[in-house]
Amino acid sequence: MKTEIMLTELQFKAVRSSGAGGQNVNKVSSKVMLSFDVNNSHALTDEEKDLLTSKLASKLTSEQILILSCDEDRSQLKNKTIVTKRFLELIKSSLIVPKKRKPTKIPRSVIEKRIKTKRNLSEIKQNRRKPKF
């Protein structure tokens, strides 16, 4: 993953934000929409693209475009920096390959303990029965 190239491939769009801000909301476009085309990116290898499409399937459009938005602040510039940080964190966390789980053998002590408790339970139940003469 080449972050410098990836940052040049990002497309930003400023949109009017909803929420707090009074009359300023109607005049200023402070919400920032970030879009990133995963398939046409030159910063990612083919394996990385496959990993991203599988892990971020719910966040991608049908054209494999990742869209993130931020309207936390009233400043467009701050929203732009926030959304780029979010984007980089999302990409880095998505590219982490989890370690494969190695199945382990059940310890002998655990097996013996289970059998012992079964024996105890069976003895308790046998003691509840009427004695046979």
Report the biggest beta sheet as strand number plus sense, adding barrel if it closes: 3 strands, antiparallel
Fold-level CATH name of the domain at 3-94:
Double Stranded RNA Binding Domain
CATH-defined architecture of the domain at 3-94 = 2-Layer Sandwich
Shape: elongated
Order of helices and strands: HEHEHEHH
Ends: how far apart? 82 Å
Strand content range: 5-15%
Secondary structure class reads alpha+beta
Report the total helices: 5
The strand count comes to 3
Calculate the mean pLDDT score and round it: 87
In the predicted model, the low-confidence regions spanning at least 5 consecutive residues are none
CATH class of the domain at 3-94: Alpha Beta
Gyration radius, in Å: 29 Å
Notes on the protein architecture:
The chain is an alpha+beta fold and 133 residues long. It has a domain at 3-94: Double Stranded RNA Binding Domain, CATH 3.30.160. Helix content is 46%, strand content 14%. The protein contains 5 helices and 3 strands; from the N terminus they run H-E-H-E-H-E-H-H. The chain has helices spanning 3-9, 24-27, 46-55, 76-94, 108-128, and strands at 11-15, 31-37, 65-70. A 3-stranded antiparallel β-sheet has the order 1-2-3, with helices on one face. The longest helix is centred in the last third of the chain and has 21 residues, at 108-128. It is elongated, with a radius of gyration of 29 Å.
